Amino acid sequence: MKIKTKYQGDIEITQDQIISFPQGILGFEEHKDFIIVSIEGNSYFKFLQNIHHEYISFLVINPW
Predict the structure, then answer these.
(1) Which of 4, 13, 18, 58 could link 54 by a cystine bridge, Cβ 3.0 to 4.6 Å?
(2) What does the alpha-carbon distance between residue 55 and residue 64 come to, in Å, rounded to a whole number?
(3) Mean pLDDT of the chain
């Protein structure tokens, strides 16, 4: 499936990449399906991108 992302443009994803939050994310309860998108040239940060709304994307980092 092809989706539009806020920072990476159009990308191709597979069903197994989708992370579902059954109750949404705090403040975004109606948005439940996301993917993790890598940032080329940056191994520390990634984007948590909503698969249905390209303008909803969060910068995330592994705390460990």
Answers:
(1) 4
(2) 28
(3) 94
